[in-house]
Sequence to fold (129 residues):
Amino acid sequence: MNSQLKGFREFLLKQNAVALAIGVIIGAAMGRVVSGLVDDVLMPILGVVLPGGEWRNAQVGLSGANAIKYGDLIGRLLDFVIVAAVVYALAKAFIKEAPAPATRSCPECLETIPIGARKCRACGSPVTG
Fold:
């Protein structure tokens, strides 16, 4: 039993499961905030344009009881676009690009050489590009 707990603890620490769980929880909360923003701020503005102001219930009636409910789809698409934009902005703000590599391999001998080298110091062959 003790070895199972130890294995589970190692899994949590090595596989970044805790960080993933925190990200999922924060993402779900952000989704609810964005849905509230869309439902309570943006869609009432669009509700002025839509018939009856009930944008979530906007639909095109088909034969019988069938209908295409486009109002709810518009809301969900707007939620997605806003969440995607916020996630993109956060990623750009907090995730920095990796610096360009300072070295590369010689195409002839595969020795590691500086990125700006024109000639390999190990084999003497010219290096282009």
Observations:
- The helical segments are 2-14, 17-47, 70-94.
- The chain has two domains: 2-94, 100-129.
- The chain has a mean pLDDT of 82.
